[in-house]
Protein backbone atom coordinates (compact mmCIF):
# COMPACT_ATOMS: atom_id res chain seq x y z
CA UNK A 1 0.00 0.00 0.00
CA UNK A 2 2.74 2.49 0.94
CA UNK A 3 5.45 0.99 -1.24
CA UNK A 4 7.04 3.29 -3.83
CA UNK A 5 6.25 2.61 -7.47
CA UNK A 6 9.24 2.48 -9.79
CA UNK A 7 8.98 2.96 -13.55
CA UNK A 8 9.00 -0.22 -15.61
CA UNK A 9 11.84 0.76 -17.96
CA UNK A 10 14.12 3.46 -16.62
CA UNK A 11 16.01 5.52 -19.17
CA UNK A 12 19.74 4.78 -19.11
CA UNK A 13 22.07 7.70 -18.31
CA UNK A 14 23.71 9.28 -21.30
CA UNK A 15 27.21 8.00 -22.03
CA UNK A 16 28.60 11.44 -22.94
CA UNK A 17 28.20 14.37 -20.61
CA UNK A 18 29.13 17.75 -22.05
CA UNK A 19 31.51 19.64 -19.78
CA UNK A 20 31.45 23.37 -20.40
CA UNK A 21 34.83 24.82 -21.21
CA UNK A 22 36.18 27.71 -19.18
CA UNK A 23 35.84 31.03 -20.96
CA UNK A 24 39.03 32.74 -22.03
CA UNK A 25 40.42 34.96 -19.27
CA UNK A 26 39.60 38.60 -19.69
CA UNK A 27 42.69 40.78 -20.06
CA UNK A 28 41.97 44.06 -18.36
CA UNK A 29 44.27 46.95 -19.00
CA UNK A 30 46.38 47.76 -15.95
CA UNK A 31 46.40 51.46 -15.13
CA UNK A 32 49.82 53.01 -15.40
CA UNK A 33 51.01 54.52 -12.15
CA UNK A 34 53.95 56.81 -12.52
CA UNK A 35 55.91 57.61 -9.40
CA UNK A 36 58.20 60.55 -9.72
CA UNK A 37 61.56 60.74 -7.99
CA UNK A 38 60.34 63.79 -6.10
CA UNK A 39 57.62 61.72 -4.45
CA UNK A 40 60.10 59.03 -3.46
CA UNK A 41 62.50 61.61 -2.01
CA UNK A 42 59.66 63.23 -0.09
CA UNK A 43 58.60 59.92 1.44
CA UNK A 44 62.17 59.04 2.40
CA UNK A 45 62.89 62.45 3.94
CA UNK A 46 59.59 62.32 5.83
CA UNK A 47 60.48 58.88 7.18
CA UNK A 48 63.92 60.07 8.31
CA UNK A 49 62.45 63.14 10.02
CA UNK A 50 59.76 61.12 11.80
CA UNK A 51 62.33 58.57 12.93
CA UNK A 52 64.57 61.33 14.28
CA UNK A 53 61.66 62.89 16.15
CA UNK A 54 60.73 59.53 17.67
CA UNK A 55 64.32 58.98 18.78
CA UNK A 56 64.42 62.47 20.32
CA UNK A 57 61.23 61.81 22.26
CA UNK A 58 62.59 58.48 23.50
CA UNK A 59 65.89 60.01 24.65
CA UNK A 60 64.04 62.84 26.39
CA UNK A 61 61.76 60.41 28.19
CA UNK A 62 64.70 58.34 29.39
CA UNK A 63 66.58 61.39 30.64
CA UNK A 64 63.52 62.70 32.47
CA UNK A 65 63.03 59.31 34.10
CA UNK A 66 66.67 59.22 35.25
CA UNK A 67 66.42 62.79 36.59
CA UNK A 68 63.27 61.85 38.51
CA UNK A 69 65.02 58.86 40.07
CA UNK A 70 68.00 60.96 41.11
CA UNK A 71 65.80 63.66 42.63
CA UNK A 72 63.72 61.08 44.48
CA UNK A 73 66.78 59.45 45.95
CA UNK A 74 68.20 62.86 47.00
CA UNK A 75 64.93 63.85 48.66
CA UNK A 76 64.70 60.50 50.43
CA UNK A 77 68.24 60.92 51.82
CA UNK A 78 67.44 64.42 53.09
CA UNK A 79 64.27 63.21 54.87
CA UNK A 80 66.16 60.42 56.65
CA UNK A 81 68.59 62.85 58.31
From TrEMBL:
Region (Disordered): 1-30
Domain of life: Bacteria
Transmembrane segments: 38-71
Keywords: Membrane, Transmembrane, Transmembrane helix
Name of this chain's protein: SpdD protein
Organism name: Streptomyces doudnae
Amino acid sequence: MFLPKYPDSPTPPSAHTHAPTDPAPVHRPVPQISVSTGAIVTVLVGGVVLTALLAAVAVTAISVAIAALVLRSMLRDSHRR
